[in-house]
Amino acid sequence: MQAALLFLLISFLIIMGILISMLYVVRQQSVAIVERFGRYQKIATSGIHIRLPFGIDKIAARIQLRLLQSEIVVETKTKDNVFVMMNVATQYRVNEQNVTDAYYKLMRPEAQIKSYIEDALRSSVPKLTLDELFEKKDEIALEVQHQVAEEMTTYGYIIVKTLITKVEPDAEVKQSMNEINAAQRKRVAAQELAEADKIKIVTAAEAEAEKDRLHGVGIAQQRKAIVDGLAESIAELKEANVGMSEEQIMSILLTNQYLDTLNTFAVKGNQTLFLPNNPNGVDDIRTQILSALKTDK
Question: Residue limits of the Band domain (predicted)?
Answer without folding.
Answer: 21-181
